[in-house]
Each structure stands twice: as structure tokens, then as C-alpha cells.
Design brief:
Blueprint: E1 3-8, E2 14-18, E3 24-28, H1 32-40, E4 46-51, H2 55-63, E5 68-69, E6 78-81, H3 85-104, H4 118-141, E7 142-151, H5 158-165, E8 170-175, H6 182-185, H7 190-200, E9 205-208, H8 211-224, E10 228-230, E11 235-238, E12 241-247, H9 254-261, H10 264-277, E13 281-288, H11 295-308, E14 316-323, H12 330-350, E15 358-361, H13 366-375, E16 378-381, H14 391-398, E17 403-407, H15 413-416, E18 421-423, H16 428-439, H17 443-458, H18 462-472
Parallel strand pairs: 1-4, 1-7, 4-6, 7-8, 8-9, 9-12, 13-14, 13-16, 14-15, 16-17, 17-18
Antiparallel strand pairs: 2-3, 5-6, 10-11, 11-12
């Protein structure tokens, strides 16, 4: 059965666990991207195309005709692709997460990496195969002139591949990450640069979270590909085709978030946090231990703040949630260890019998995160570089008096910067000073800023983000 709207993403809205006896248990899958898409998909005829990530997923695919899981999922039916594990690993870990993600977040330690040799070429071939599998499945499943929404850096080649198979389709690609400027994107081999850019330009519409990332993509097309770019109209013309470039900021469904944060499990966590913190001021951060989130410099800033302001000793607690991420990559395991080492230094230097200056949690717990938001006096969001960062938007919605210390390199700074305390993410001393300023903001100013932050955070909810991109394909 052909579908009129198709979503292609690496992860799907559900995943499966394979038990010892061969049984399958379904659970909700994915992270922030998948949760956001799951919330807004409401079209009657939507198919979600994703990859099997685990043995349980592969077991479910092999039990389903054609990989179609047509149970009554809230997001509609699913086509799950059984891509060989070795191909998936090379495409997902080696290329998507260890190459394209690093380039667009400007994270390479260039004296040592990247290095593009024969091993990378084998990995890139797997990335092509992986994208080709998605293109073929989408071509098989799409109705005539269906709309296809391809998600993120895992699938940059899919739009052009799909265009070659099905020129009748209306295709969008959306990048949830930043985009690197031409001089940094050119670290990639020239043929890979061309393949990625022309891959996305196979779409009718290429979307980005901010004008800054859209501009960087257009600059890459112009400088590295020789495409004709109209910056005012936001179009890129190459090989006789014109792709429209869209800017689609992503906000938060404030009503849904407030309702979830009022549930009993969140209230229970609030009681626990209140017992730990007492009447002290609370600085909160909530992140995955991704290299771009800059957790170590954030902890160093708090350490400098305590050194510079002994009057705050015993009067403030930093609650830092650093949830493990991508632990199959060695760089991430080491970064998590560095976060834990830094936290121990702060505890060893400043903790007393009746005061824990820092509480570090590394076990993912969404209700506990919502409780921390509600109690926060200050929210620290200091990524090195971030496509948007919804933490910066969720916090002010849940805490009316929360002061936001925000990196100028987060995409959210474009909307929230005027009412945040903006920081250079590399400037530890500057971030320490911003933490002090946030703690000492006059109450009236704190509440006024918070009100404006909440309005901005709710202005572009996920449903509008989704509908605007669908409308661009009509």
C-alpha cells in the first residue's frame, strides 16, 4: 500500500527487545528528534521508514512481511530496514557520528584528526549503501507525488538517490545539527563534499533550524560546489535543479510539557531534590555527555565561581545531569570519565559535612529532569555548538523565575539571546561571571526575562515546525 507522507530517519518511534526465548517486547524508541516527530505526526496516511538498530528490531523485521510493522502505532505504520550490522556500524558510527557530526560541530582536533584513508573509503561505501537502502524503500512505499521528509546527517545522500528513482516525489531534507562554514566543511575529501551537498540538493526543500546554519549550507554550495545561490530568495541552483532553503526553528509544546511536569512522578522527584538542596539556590544543567555539550567547561566555570565568591559557599548547589551518550565510541567514554573527574575535584575542594556543592547524576531519568527544571534558579546551557538546544527552551517554561545562561553558539540564542545571559562557551571565567550575575538578578528583572523567554520558547511548537515543512512541499 503506497503512502502519501513518508518520514525517513535513522531511528524509529518504536524499538524491540528480543528475549532469551525469542519473544519480542516493544518499547518507545528514539531520542529528542524521534520524540518530537512522534508528537506531531497526525496525517492519516503516514509511513515512518527507519533502520533496525538491535537484534530485537531485526527479529521484528524478519517476522513482518516486507519489513512493514502495521500495528496501531500512534505514528502510523512503520517500515523498518534490516541493514547488515557491519554496514550499519560503519555508516552510523564511523561516518555519520564520527565524521559528519564532528565536521558540522567543528570538533576535530586537527593536528591528529580527521584522516581520510582506505579505511574511511570503506566506511563511506557503507554510508552510500545505507542511504541507498532508505532511498529504495521510500521509492517502493511512496504514492505518486507523495511528500517525503528525510531527517538529518545520517541520510544526506538519500534525497538525490530517491530523486533518481522517483522524480515525481516531493522531497524535503531537514538538518537538526549546525552546518559548518566552507573552510571547515572542506576538511572532508572533495568528492565527499560534493556528494553530501548534491545529495541534499536532490531535495526540493532543505530545512535548517536557524538562518545561520542555512547560510552556512548555501555558502558551502556556492564556494565548494560552484552552485548558483540566491541568498535573498534562499535558493540554490545546481545541475539544472533549484532547491529552496527553509529556516524552521523548533520550539516546545508548552501545554504538554507543563502537564507532564505536573504528574506525580515529577512531584516525587521534586521532594527528593528539595531535601537535598534545602533553601539554597539551585543551578541546573541537563545534557547528554556529547562532546559538543561542553559539560567540563561548565563545571570548571562553577568551580571558578566558587573560588571567586566564597560568600556563596553553603548557599548554592549545582545539580548537573550528564546522561551517557554514544558509549560505543571511545571519545564519548573518555568524555564521560572527564566529566566525572572534574565533578570529583569540585567535591574534594569545596564539600563540607553539611553542604554538597555539586550533585552529578549520570543515569537518565526524564521525570527527575522535569523536577529539576521546576526548581531551577539558574539554567546553564553552554554548548560549543548546537543546532537548536531544546533544554534552553524547556527550562524557562517550567520555572517562572529561572535565569538562563546560554552559549552564543546554540541555535536557540537566535530566539532567546536578548533575555539570556549570553556567554562564549570557551570562556570559563566569563561563564563563571555569568553564573554570579544570574544568581543576583533582581527579582523583577528575573521574572520579566522569564516571561519573555517562555513566550519565545512556545512560539514555534513542533506541530507548526512539521506543518510548515509539509506546506513547503505542496
Amino acid at each position: 500500500m503506497s503512502s502519501t507522507v513518508l518520514i525517513a530517519s535513522n531511528r524509529g518511534p518504536v524499538s524491540f527487545t528480543l528475549s532469551d526465548d525469542g519473544g519480542l517486547t516493544m518499547r518507545r524508541g528514539g531520542g529528542g528528534l524521534v520524540s518530537g516527530l512522534s508528537e506531531v505526526v497526525r496525517e492519516a496516511d503516514v509511513l515512518w521508514v527507519c533502520a533496525a538498530l538491535s537484534d530485537g528490531d531485526r527479529g521484528a523485521v524478519r517476522q513482518a512481511a516486507g519489513g512493514r510493522l502495521d500495528r496501531a502505532f500512534a505514528t502510523g505504520p512503520i517500515r523498518m530496514l534490516d541493514i547488515p550490522p557491519a554496514v550499519f556500524h560503519r555508516a552510523y558510527n564511523a561516518v555519520a557520528n564520527s565524521t559528519l557530526w564532528f565536521v558540522n560541530h567543528l570538533l576535530y582536533n586537527t593536528p591528529f584528526s580527521p584522516e581520510f584513508g582506505t579505511r574511511f573509503r570503506r566506511e563511506w561505501e557503507s554510508y552510500r549503501t545505507y542511504n541507498g537502502a532508505f532511498a529504495l524503500a521510500l521509492a517502493e512505499e511512496a504514492a505518486h507525488r507523495a511528500r517525503v521528509m528525510v531527517q538529518d546527517y545520517h541520510l544526506t545522500l538519500t534525497p538525490a538517490m530517491l530523486r533518481a528513482e522517483r522524480p515525481d516525489l516531493r522531497i524535503a531534507h531537514f538538518s537538526h545539527t549546525p552546518w559548518a562554514p566552507p573552510e571547515y566543511f572542506a576538511l572532508l575529501p572533495e568528492d565527499v563534499v560534493a556528494e553530501v551537498l548534491t545529495g541534499i540538493l536532490g531535495a526540493d526543500h532543505a530545512g535548517f533550524l536557524t538562518a545561520r546554519w542555512a547560510r552556512a549550507f548555501m555558502d558551502c554550495c556556492e564556494t565548494l560546489l560552484g552552485a548558483r545561490v540566491d541568498h535573498a530568495a534562499r535558493t540554490v541552483t545546481h545541475d539544472g535543479r533549484t532547491t529552496r532553503i527553509g529556516v524552521h526553528p523548533l520550539g516546545v509544546n508548552g501545554e504538554a510539557l507543563l502537564a507532564r511536569a505536573a504528574e506525580q512522578d515529577v512531584e516525587s522527584h521534586m521532594s527528593v531534590i528539595k531535601d537535598l538542596v534545602g533553601d539554597r539556590r539551585l543551578i541546573v544543567r541537563i545534557d547528554r555527555t556529547e562532546l559538543s555539550k561542553n559539560i567540563v567547561r561548565g563545571l570548571r566555570a562553577y568551580q571558578e565561581f566558587l573560588a571567586a565568591h566564597p560568600e556563596w559557599h553553603g548557599r548554592v548547589v549545582h545539580l548537573a545531569f550528564a546522561y551517557p551518550s554514544r558509549h560505543d565510541l571511545p571519545e564519548y567514554r573518555e568524555y564521560t570519565a572527564a566529566v566525572q573527574r572534574c565533578a570529583k575535584e569540585i567535591e574534594d575542594e569545596y564539600a563540607t559535612e553539611d553542604w554538597d556543592p555539586l550533585i552529578l547524576n549520570v543515569n537518565d531519568d526524564y521525570p527527575r529532569s522535569l523536577a529539576a527544571y521546576r526548581l531551577a534558579d539558574v539554567l546553564l546551557v553552554n554548548p560549543i555548538r548546537d543546532g537548536m538546544n531544546l533544554v534552553a527552551k524547556e527550562g524557562p517554561i517550567l520555572s517562572p523565575r529561572c535565569a538562563l545562561v546560554l552559549s552564543r553558539e546554540a541555535g536557540a540564542a537566535a530566539e532567546l539571546g536578548a533575555d539570556s545571559l549570553l556567554v562564549n562557551p570557551y570562556d570559563v571565567s566569563g561563564t563563571a561571571a555569568a553564573l554570579h550575575e544570574a544568581l543576583t538578578l533582581p527579582e523583577q528583572e528575573r521574572l520579566a526575562r522569564g516571561q519573555r523567554l517562555r513566550a519565545a520558547a512556545c512560539a514555534l511548537p513542533p506541530q507548526r515546525w512539521f506543518d510548515d515543512q509539509l506546506a513547503a512541499l505542496r
